[in-house]
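Researcher: I'm preparing a figure for a lab meeting and need a structural model of a single chain. I don't have an experimental structure, so a prediction will have to do for now. The sequence is pasted below. Please return the structure as tokens so I can convert it later.
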Amino acid sequence: MNDHPLVGIIANPASGKDIRRLVAHGSTFDNNEKINIVRRALLGLAAAGVPEVAYLPDAYGIVERAAAAAKPNLTLKHLAMPVLSHASDSVEAAQRLHDLGAAAILTLGGDGTNRAVAKGCGDVPLVPVSTGTNNVFPRMVEGTLAGLAAGLVANGVARNRPGLPRVIRRAPCLRVEIDGAPADLALIDVVASTHAWIGARALWEPSHLREVVLSRISPAAIGIASLGAALYPRECDSCSGAWIAIGDLASAPKRVTIPIAPGLLRDVPIQDARLLSHGQSVFLQPGPCTLALDGEREIEIRSPSTHLAVRLDPRGPRVIDVDAALTAAASSGFFVHP
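Model: Understood. Here is the structure written out token by token.
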């Protein structure tokens, strides 16, 4: 058992506020609700015996305000780092928490936030709490339970035990290569778009899609990732990803109806598709495009001679299963007192 575990908190103040609130019916997680979630998480961490929490500072003071109301029995310290109000803040904070020896990181955000954290956290396990738009990687989980699970893993009480569900698992990810060199990663999907500019970043129209690569087949995904279960329902939760070529609505061999954004269902024409196994790479069609990573256009490709490849990597970030962590702790007698 770790007597002095450190847990990190990365709460993205910008998550849950993008354009899909205007073009679809995405929910809004304002910063006051994030304060409420963090408040409960801090109390859960304290109850699990975590003595210290380090966190990403932000202009709104999410963690500070949460602590002021909850007064948890632990020490809080902000990471001494410049804050640029950019995704790079989450990457930098995750790297610093890794270097500090954090035993777990609790994140508040969507797929994009967790993608940034995954780029910096190394093997530090994550408890991803959903406060974003397209949430395939993080889950809706009560803040108290998220804090408890992170704390129980950090102090060594909740760990993988024979006969019980795995507390920590590896999530797959997608590694993007440009002309043979590593370029970026995505946790859920890589999408080649016909749009030649980044613009509003999010994607919600099938006519803008060219190719899709998925890291997993999820039965209840929202967004472009929902294509996987629509095409391969028997592969849900298997060790498979998928490559999908989008066709023309008038001539494609088939089409599927998916929730491409919250409250927004669209018919997507499918020209071709196949499953991907772990370790397998797929080469995307040449030609100018933008690459969207986990729902946001990030990379512009202008040269028709650029070679794009995406590899399904089974060794993505480590993730804490909240249910399994609480089950393991209960099995060890943590919650029972004489």
